């Protein structure tokens, strides 16, 4: 399964266009524009599984910087500042990584 099986390719493209400039990425805005915030819990779990590149059950900081590239291979890498802000916003238990429940809570908040 790929992200375009769950999200509209045109919504993904619009979300990526919105954050092309370095330091312009806003997770909340990206989730809204891409349509993620309207998806069911089971769909969000599948999206998480796709984004969890190493299938560890968590999205770690190293994976997070390539977040946009999981949607489109030519997309930019998140800046260090964007990555740290994204991680801090989602990592509720302070373990330095984002679990499936934390991801779902962030997207649906």
From TrEMBL:
Family statement: Belongs to the parvalbumin family.
CDD domains, alphabetized: EFh_parvalbumin_beta (cd16255)
Superkingdom as given in the UniProt entry: Eukaryota
UniProt keyword Calcium present: yes
Highest classification ranks of the organism: Eukaryota, Metazoa, Chordata, Craniata, Vertebrata
A cellular-component GO term for this protein: cytoplasm
Keywords assigned by UniProt, alphabetized: Calcium, Metal-binding, Repeat
Keyword match Manganese: no
EF-hand domain ranges (all copies): 39-74, 78-109
Record: residues binding Ca(2+) 2: 91, 93, 95, 97, 102
Function: In muscle, parvalbumin is thought to be involved in relaxation after contraction. It binds two calcium ions.
GO molecular function, one term: calcium ion binding
InterPro entries linked to this entry: EF-hand-dom_pair (IPR011992), EF_Hand_1_Ca_BS (IPR018247), EF_hand_dom (IPR002048), Parvalbumin (IPR008080)
SUPFAM superfamilies in the record: EF-hand (SSF47473)
Binding site for Ca(2+) 1: 52, 54, 56, 58, 63
Pfam families: EF-hand_7
Name of this protein: Parvalbumin
């Amino acid at each position: 399964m790929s992200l375009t099986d769950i999200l509209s390719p045109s919504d993904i493209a619009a979300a990526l266009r919105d954050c092309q400039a370095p330091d312009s990425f806003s997770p909340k805005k990206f989730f809204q524009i891409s349509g993620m915030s309207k998806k069911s819990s089971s769909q969000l779990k599948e999206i998480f599984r796709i984004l969890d590149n190493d299938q560890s059950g968590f999205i770690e900081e190293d994976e997070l910087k390539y977040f946009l590239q999981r949607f489109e291979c030519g997309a930019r890498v998140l800046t260090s500042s964007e990555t740290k802000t994204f991680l801090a916003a989602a990592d509720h238990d302070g373990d330095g990584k984002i679990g499936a429940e934390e991801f779902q809570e962030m997207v649906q908040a």
